[in-house]
Amino acid sequence: GDDGVDFRPAYHITPPSNWMNDPNGLMERDGIFHVFFQFNPSAPIWGAPHWGHVASRDLAHWQRLPVALSPEETYDIDGVFSGSATVLPDGDPVIMYTGTSRRQELGFFWQVQALARPENGSDPLLQRWVKDPRNPVIEDAPPRGTNFQFRDPQTAWRQEVGEELGSLWLTTIGSQVSCVGAAPMYASRDFVKWEFFGYLHSQPGVVPSENETECTFGETQFGAEGRNWEVVCYFPKRVGEEVIHIFKYSDQIRGRTPFGRDWYVLSDVPLAFTNKTVPGQGNALTPSLRGAPFAPAIIDHGDIYASKFFNTSSGRLLWMGWSFETSTGCTGTCSDGTPLTDARGWQGLQTIPREVQVDLETGQLLMTPIGEVEALRSAQLFEQGGMKLVPGARRALPLKFPKGGSGGRQMDVSATFKLSDEASAEVSSTGFKVGVAVTHGRTGALTSVFLNGSLSAGGGGVEELEMWVDRSATGGATSANLQGGRVTLGGVAKEVTLRLLVDRSVVEAVGQGGRVRATSRVYPAGRGDWGLELFNEGAAGSVVAGVEAWEMEGAFVDDLW
Ligand code: DQQ
What is the pLDDT of residues 512-525, one digit of tens each? Predict the structure, then answer.
């Protein structure tokens, strides 16, 4: 149904067939990385989620494994929703997920939390999972919350919670409380008995308090005030002498993307929490980094939702997110026509994992594709520096395609642009706009990724820039054609950089060493080789560009050994 154009990414994780959404249960255990994901094995649209499973030894090559969890118990019969894995001190992993069962009288999904453990802990691939007979282990939504918005438990952590209680396991669960997004915590000593333990974090001024009422599901869920948090994450990250606390939530507001958007805040003190006996007390919002006001930042400006952080055994903090299809306005469950990708039998992918660093100067996360992805580079397609681009210049790069390669459909591209010294010395606030276009074969379709900003006078550089992916000449996508945003650099930069991971229907764009990110889906229909063009559309003078590009191999292998 797609005229021979293969939109299925080769080096990204996609479903074996049918539908994929959120990443689940991300963990490293005995040198093997596990990625589970929301999976509908029966149709290329969302429905009755199972947990699909892939594993890797190097975070670059992946093996497909059997479905790990299926809806089969009364408490999860309508879907094994999202959840996390925690590796316990004895090395045994445990999954906590959300079980759902439709309440017919309401038609919505009743949500409780359940545990699963490996059937055979000595299977390095952890292929079979057994549900705990004591499930569900968390049945009660938080006070003024609702079991219709109560899901996606986060990887648990140990925390000292005072002399009386000592050290406890804590987790947090995406929720709606008093009609706003919330991250209630639950505490346990043995990982089996869990109790509500206050709120990890809440929106400023909307700390749930006793006198607020319960939110009726559906009433304000998507209204101006109504918000719901899904897939909340909370991870500490050591930065030199300090520990920075990263809190992430997926805000389910309609209208921004088909699904919502992922946000983060950073704090240099652990996020406050209320003791369950004093609801609302001491739960004022912990300030963001350096006492700055609550200022959530966008994790990725593109087609990303329900992303997750996870730690490796060597203490790296990584991130990975679900990228949904945007080939039609319909995202799978609508009745106004078949989504384009339904015909192909699959939808959805996971991004290449990103390495997470904290920049204390600006209070920003820097997120770059992990170094491991370079293991998939095969032929080098191009390498050249010193390319001068005068204002208005466009320059097609002669790529050297290997035989039997992807014809530019699977590429890893790095570009640097040295901003002109003369121009910045003379002119104040002169705008620049430089970038890379991916050209899509013979039809003339292209996806432009660019950086723009203003050069500061005298100093010769840029302090703030924007990165945008422009899909208006790409064809096929119906969500916003321009995806991107603005970012402060925390200094004056004389050089701006772009990294593009191009994989058939996805372009992961990362600007300025990971300061700004946009994952965009593209569906160019043309045949013929893809290519790269550099451009300088700004008024700020010449730039000098350097580009490296590689062909990328597929990521899936039959076995990891
Ligand atoms: N989708 C899942 C939920 C999650 C939402 C169900 C986010 O667990 O809250 O597939 O995409």
Answer: 999 999 999 988 87
